[in-house]
Structure formats: structure tokens, C-alpha cells
Structure prediction request, 646 residues.
Amino acid sequence: MPGADLPVTLDDIRAAAARIGGFVHRTPVLTSRTLDALVGAEVFIKCENLQRMGAFKIRGAYNAIARLAPEELAKGVAAFSSGNHAQATALAARELGTSAVILMPEDAPRSKMAATAGYGAEIVTYDRYTEDRVALGTALAEERGLTLIPPYDHPDVIAGQGTAALELIEETGPLDVLLVPVGGGGLIAGSAVAAKGMHRDTKVIGVEPEGSDDTKRSLESGTRVTVPVPRTVADGQAVSVPGELTFAVNRHLVDSVALVGDAEVIDAMRFAFDRLKTVFEPSGATGLAALLAGRVDNLPPRVGVIASGGNIDARRFTELLGG
Amino acid sequence: MPGADLPVTLDDIRAAAARIGGFVHRTPVLTSRTLDALVGAEVFIKCENLQRMGAFKIRGAYNAIARLAPEELAKGVAAFSSGNHAQATALAARELGTSAVILMPEDAPRSKMAATAGYGAEIVTYDRYTEDRVALGTALAEERGLTLIPPYDHPDVIAGQGTAALELIEETGPLDVLLVPVGGGGLIAGSAVAAKGMHRDTKVIGVEPEGSDDTKRSLESGTRVTVPVPRTVADGQAVSVPGELTFAVNRHLVDSVALVGDAEVIDAMRFAFDRLKTVFEPSGATGLAALLAGRVDNLPPRVGVIASGGNIDARRFTELLGG
Prediction:
């Protein structure tokens, strides 16, 4: 396959699956005849909203922390995140017997701070209008000897994220196309290595919010493009430039990127609720949105979708759907 | 076991499972460490909200219709229902190549009428303030030679409903207690036959809304008690008297009934949304509500819960949770 010398291989993903298997859920794959009839294809949705801590992020964080040396584990880990990566790092660190320091903006949602603290992490806050989190976090990690766990741009993180697609395809058999939400690109990089490694003809299509199309533009131009601060309801995908390592994988293995608008994402969340009885956060619904809104041309017969997460509370959900 | 001469046996349930297996979903079993920590037990939730047409009802309806004689199938079936049994009968009839007539009150929710019609059933409406649906339905069935498919009080329906517990326990192994929502009593009758047939020491506890405690009262008095018109948010359990056949099973096999209030049910729906990322209709959440509200004393270590359905739309959900 193209890019056989990529930084992450199918064997790495299989090794990650064995490493994290006793800890992460093997999440269910949902199907719906109503959905199939609507879109004219057989659709298999890998429900990472039902994963531990509510999103696929735990796969990569756990895999990366599990591979640290004993002396690194003795000192602890750190992450910058106000989202699912914070909770993933905190939970994985606790389960692996180490400590985590999470740098979060001081105005991060209380519920996310509480969940992260609930997993036993120390939270350090900063003022995101006046302080630079990378400088702060790097200084903090250096001072305390902590290992930084990046949210996507690391081979062990990418390999861990790829285990969701591996499980999906083990269960469904060959897929014609796999739709994967794209933020920093770690989930789709791992998914593409898994999917094309298992069946080289499977197409891998990314899905980005219209307001955050950095990976689409980067693939089209062949080099990493930075877009302005993303404005999208899909906060988990609000990234303005692809990762270096993720882009090095994705430029070889991702066939195209579909874009979805906020209203399409909200419609997909409503469809998931009403018809699939399941809760997707906006980023978790973008793959389904691309299907329902007809954003993928010439849909082939067998379609996989990674629903990346479900971390939205009932209050925010009703606001979004009512608005 | 007590009641070995009951109208439904574990073998009937195994036969039903084989009969309906290619048609119904083998629904996922959800677990949540957060939930386990909150209630102090290991909890396994059988997600019949993810069943075809969104509720367990399809199991019994399909099993009953599949057992009809060819000459009965040639004439068609009928049901009275404004709820999940209507959709279940319509869908099962279509899949089994027969026709269905569903008698619904003329003020039934348009969405339920549309779903039922969408499965190809003929809908006959009546005025529920002035007309007697049993007399109407019986006359209609007689006139057209249709077979009535009862919502719970039939051995084939009970055997079909029992397949959910069978699947659950096949997956989890022995449970100390199984919590099952109770309306007319078909789901719990089948569940109790399955659970106690597989492991005689498993306790089976029913869950009823406070405003619809006919089975609790009937079990306590040893005879079927009729309660006033139920007032409860859990419309799927708003039944005022247990079925004859279901009560004949349940009086032998159900250990006790826990009651839950409307606010507790709504809290459980919110918990399911926020933490389990799944959608339960009110009746589907009553088992979880009993756990979260501490309505089951001396909870043993391994607890099964049947979440019976998820047919609530996003609009009604936001009304209930906002109210």
C-alpha cells in the first residue's frame, strides 16, 4: 500500500489493541434499517460515544502512557486540554498507577473540570487570553519531570486511536468506505492505517466542519495549511492546522474530506437521538451528518462511520436542538 | 423451581430465541463504572432501546405472529395499541409477509401513527371517549377473519419477551438480581422464566411507577387488583390490572416490586443521557431509576436491568427534562 514506511503500521495498531484490550470497551456497532433506507447503503456505526469517558480519546492516551518507561511513570504525565483528551489522560494515568497534571483554561466548563478532577488528576488553570499554554505546560512538565501526552501528534496516540477502526472492521468485514471525523487528525490517521492495512481498497474519507477545514485544504495543497480560528459547533474538531505526524500519514492514506455545516451536525444529533436512541456530541455526529446531508458522492454499498464521542450534557443538547 | 408447570418454560424461550434470531437485534449490554460506583454493585443494562422499532415489544409480536398457521397468516393480524405494541405488530407482520390492522385512538400522537403506517399497517381510529376499543377491535377482527395479537397476555408473546433476559444472562453469566419494568407483566413474566430457569437463585424484582402499582398490590394480595386510571410519566407501564396469564406466572416467580416516582424516572433518563450516552423513554428508565433512587434494599453484587425501550423524540425529551 502507499506509505508502507509510515510512522504507524497495522502491526502497531494490533499491538495497541492487545495492550489496551482489558481496559477500554469494545464498543458496539449500531445499524439501522431506517438509516440504510434513507442513504441507500448499509451503514455500520462504531459507537465511541459508548467508550469509557465517552470518547475514543482514551484509546490513544492509554496506549501512549502504557508504553512509558517505569522511571517516566514514576514521575507522572501532563496534558493541555479543555476537552476529551484531558479526561482521557486523567483516567488512563489513574488506571496505570501514575499521576496526571492537566492544564486547562480557567474558564473551561465546570463539568469537564469536575470530570477530570474526578479521575484523580491535578488541574492547573491558566488565563487563555493572556497566557501561552504551550509555554506554560512545557515549563511545568520540565520543572516537575512530567511526560507530556500529546492529543494526536504522536505514534502511540495514533496507533491507539486506530484500534476503533480495527475493531469495527473485524466485526463487519471489508468496508467500501470509512468516514472519520477529523480534528488534529489522529483518529483518522490510525483509522486509515487500520482500514487500508486490512483491505487496501477501502476508501477513507475525513469529515470536517465547514468552519474548520484545515485538513481538507492541506490535502488539496499537499502541505499543512493553517486556517483562522475555527467557528463550529463541533468543538472537538476546532483545530486550525493538521498535526505534523498525522498529516504525514493522512496525505498518503486519506482519499478525500467531506465538509458539514453546523445545522447538518445538529440534524444528525437529532436523528441519532430519535432513531438510533444514542447520544452523540457534535463532533461525534459529523460522520453521520455527512451521510444524511448527502455530502459523500456515489456512496458505495458498505459504509463504516466512526462516531467519535458523546460528551454533551442534556442541558447543552436541548439548547442546541432548540436553537 | 416453583411453578414448573407454568404456561411458559425456558425451552419455549429458547425456541423463541431461535425463531426470532435472524430478525431482531441482539442488543448490546451497557456497563458504566460510574454507575457501579454510585450504586455499589456491578450493573448490566440490556439495551432494548436499541432494539428494532426501539423497544422489546418486537420480540413477542414477532414470535407470536411467526407461530400462526399459514391460513391465519393469509388473512392477517390485528392489534389495539397506541404505543410500542402497535409498531411491533406492524413491523413483524410486514416481515412475515402478512398484513396488520392496528386500532388506535384518533388522538394518538401523529408520530406513532406515522411510524405504524410506515411499517405498512392499516390504521383504524376510534374515539376513545365514546367507543369501546375491545368491542370494536373484536368485531373488526371477526368480520375480517384477523388474528388478534395481544400485547402481553399470550404464551407466545411472553416467550418472545423472555428472550431479552436470556440473551443478557448468556452474556453476563449468573446475576444476583434482575430488575424489569412492569406494565401488563409480559416482559417480566418471560424474564423471570428465563432468569430463574437459568439460575434458580436469581431474584427477579419488578419496577412499577408509583401511580400504576397494580402488580405490586396484586402480588401482595395474591389476586389480581385493579387500580384507578394510572397517572405516570411512564406511559408504557400505565396499565391498571395485571394480565391473567402474566399474573399466573409472576405470582410464582417475581420476588418483589419496587416503585419509582416520576421525578426519579426523569432523573434516570438524564443520567442515561449524560453518563451512558443512551436514550431511554420513561418506561425504559424505570429499572435504572429504582437503582439510582435506592429503591432496592440490600443490593447484591451483580445486578441486571432491562431497559425496555427508547421511543421518545427529542422534543418530548427536552420538555420532560426541562419541566
Observations:
- The first strand of chain A starts at residue 29 and ends at 30.
